[in-house]
Amino acid sequence: MKGHACIDPLHHVHDASGFVAAVERASLERGLRLTPIRARVLGLIAEAGRPLKAYDLLDQVRDGEGAGAAAPPTVYRALDFLLANGFIHKLESVNAFVACHHPSTAQHSVPFLICDRCHSAVELEDAQVVAALDERARALGFVPQAQTLEVHGLCARCSG
């Protein structure tokens, strides 16, 4: 995947409405239902351009239209659906969510580079890193079921 946009630190979702439309198409193709609340949560994550925490999402959903259905379980169910179908990623170390750059693919593991100063997160799609971790785990008799690799530090903008 060398040269792929996901290894470019500036690569992120630039067009939130286009991203939501791509997820709508992928949902239709997979027979999934992207409800209005799921689409709203997805749009907010895509618009943010940075990782968002669930309660920040809840506040934004409540501030928007159709706020009547904005109870925490509703937002968490929307997040669960989006995660399970590979439309977003959860950054475990900061307990926040980011849009996946590949909404038309199934759920997949990717390493993330997370800036501790500006809180940006770069989806570093590198199949070799993911495969190497899987291979090393299996060599030790471990059967991986999920992978989370998050590298914290300073991005080029913050370290320069």
Structure write-up:
The protein is an alpha+beta fold and 160 residues long. The chain has a single domain, classed as Arc Repressor Mutant, subunit A, CATH 1.10.10. The protein has helices spanning 16-30, 36-48, 54-63, 72-84, 127-139, 156-159, and strands at 88-91, 96-99, 111-115, 121-123, 149-153. The chain has a three-stranded mixed sheet, with no helix packed on it. It is globular, with a radius of gyration of 16 Å. The two termini are 27 Å apart. The model is unreliable at 1-12 (pLDDT under 50).
Order of strands, main sheet, comes to 4-3-5
What is the overall shape? globular
Q: What does the largest sheet look like?
A: 3 strands, mixed
Q: Give the beta-strand count.
A: 5
CATH arch. level architecture: Orthogonal Bundle
Q: Determine the structural class based on helices, strands and strand pairing.
A: alpha+beta
Radius of gyration: 16 Å
- How much of the polypeptide forms β-strand, as a percent range? 5-15%
Helix count? 6
Overall pLDDT, averaged? Answer: 84
CATH fold field value: Arc Repressor Mutant, subunit A
By CATH reckoning, the class would read Mainly Alpha
Portion of residues in helices? 40-55%
Relevant CATH superfamily: Winged helix-like DNA-binding domain superfamily/Winged helix DNA-binding domain
| Element-by-element helix/strand order | HHHHEEEEHEH
How far is the N terminus from the C terminus? Answer: 27 Å
